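Researcher: I'd like a candidate sequence for this fold, 164 residues long. If you have to choose between options at a position, lean toward the conservative one.
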């Protein structure tokens, strides 16, 4: 069956089986491979995308259920080709990633938080990423990245100009 999906502000028409998950549709039909397949049963959070700004596990949703909603994947957060968003840049700066497997999902969960809460507490940041498992970092650098990005989005703690 055909489904029309609004992904990263573009309408994409895709042929799927009724049972095709949104995760498989994104990865296999649309080559949006930033949504990672981990457990594929709702536990690890690696497949997180945003549906109308809310973090959702794309392995638990059928592609047809996403019709009519605005879907954002990690590919949609970059301001332009080869550019990083403030949040993505903060993850690099604070070493908020190691293998990177959890990173797109972590960034989307954080992005969803910052859309709703410009000045989250540490507890609110931890809560926002509590559904996303990272086996590498120990989480501290991820929390630091999100806190730094929140400050920068509020105009504080801007990066130092590298040029003398
Ligand atoms: S792959 Fe979806 S929650 Fe693990
Ligand atoms: S950086 Fe490896 S799983 Fe998070």
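Model: Candidate sequence:
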């Amino acid at each position: 069956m055909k489904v029309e999906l609004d992904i990263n502000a573009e309408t994409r028409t895709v042929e799927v089986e009724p049972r095709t998950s949104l995760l498989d549709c994104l990865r296999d039909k649309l080559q949006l491979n930033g949504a990672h397949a981990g457990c594929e049963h709702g536990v690890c959070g690696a497949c997180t995308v945003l549906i109308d700004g809310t973090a959702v596990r794309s392995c638990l949703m059928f592609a047809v259920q996403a019709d009519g909603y605005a879907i954002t994947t990690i590919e949609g957060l970059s301001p332009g080709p080869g550019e990083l968003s403030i949040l993505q840049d903060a993850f690099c700066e604070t070493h908020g990633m190691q293998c990177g497997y959890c990173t797109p999902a972590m960034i989307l969960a954080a992005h969803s938080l910052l859309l709703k809460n410009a000045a989250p507490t540490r507890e609110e940041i931890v809560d926002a990423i509590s559904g996303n498992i990272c086996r590498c970092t120990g989480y501290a650098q991820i929390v630091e990245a999100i806190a730094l990005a929140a400050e920068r989005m509020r105009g504080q703690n801007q990066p130092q100009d590298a040029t003398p």
